């Protein structure tokens, strides 16, 4: 069995004190991640309502999704550096508070510009807290359970697809989109309050130069691994972004059949995230990463093979293909985070996870464009082909990161 002895990102100074209340603070981290994921994705379901209320076009209101993602991707690395020395509980509670205020401001926004600004602030707050949440989970986990603790936080993001987004969309339909923003604010407020009460004092990293904190980026294999997350994010998200088109080609899944398929993907994502954590603890980070990266490639490759072979296929066949996709695409997260912390974490764990998140979100932003070009050029079957191409590049980069001599690198 491969070793998974990670170097803690933070030291508590009290040993087991950080581990005993995990039954309380770990669910709070889950809920905080759940609120971030809900805020990121729920806007897509209430865009027409927002457009009508604020007298803007639906395409323009769609930029509310983009600004959150861009703020998150660009804000995560500098936020990690600026808050590196602060106590972890302080960062998490303060970021949760800013996130709550941003969503309250969004709920009260009188015009589109104000709402856009509130979304940007919410994205920055999420970018600040998310890497710290993962680093705390890894550092305070009992020995041999780091992967599972990372997976619980990751499952908060995934579960938002299954529970948070549908509930938020329903509230928006029943009470208006502003109620959805209040719902997200309430989730984060509960999470922040719970963390303030239950999370033990965890110091930030030791004082050090910026150059020292970014030193892992000077190591070839770490940099290659982070780079691999860009095509992984693009290829991994493409089958979801164009789910309607791909599922329609495979099994004529359209209209009312789309929502159940999205639920399948979300449920598979939750299971995959938890399975990814267990795989890290059982196999080690590197083997688990390769396992799920290979699975991510296999899923769109199978979709492409089925599309080229004929169809339409029964809906259960399409559901199984997307089930496999969800398991692999969301299962890789804990493995990547654990591998980065294991290799180069230490005091820079938060910065590394922030950079990983930025690379992943950059890939997400490319998924729509690359998939759209593929769809236009070759139809729905070209989408999984493009996804597989991106994932081949990602897998090759991960393979390169795992080979070579440490002596040459260090």
UniProtKB/TrEMBL annotation:
Superkingdom as given in the UniProt entry: Bacteria
A cellular component annotation (GO) from this entry: plasma membrane
Sample GO molecular function, one term: transmembrane transporter activity
Transmembrane segments: 24-48, 60-84, 91-115, 121-142, 149-171, 177-202, 223-243, 255-276, 288-308, 320-341, 353-375, 381-402
Keyword Membrane: yes
Keywords, ordered alphabetically: Cell membrane, Membrane, Transmembrane, Transmembrane helix
Pfam families listed in its UniProt record: MFS_1 (PF07690)
InterPro entries per the UniProt record, alphabetical: MFS (IPR011701), MFS_dom (IPR020846), MFS_Efflux_Transporters (IPR050189), MFS_trans_sf (IPR036259)
Subcellular locations according to the entry: Cell membrane
Membrane topology label: Multi-pass membrane protein
Domain spans labelled Major facilitator superfamily (MFS) profile: 25-408
Protein name: Major facilitator superfamily MFS_1
Organismal lineage: Bacteria, Bacillati, Actinomycetota, Actinomycetes, Streptosporangiales
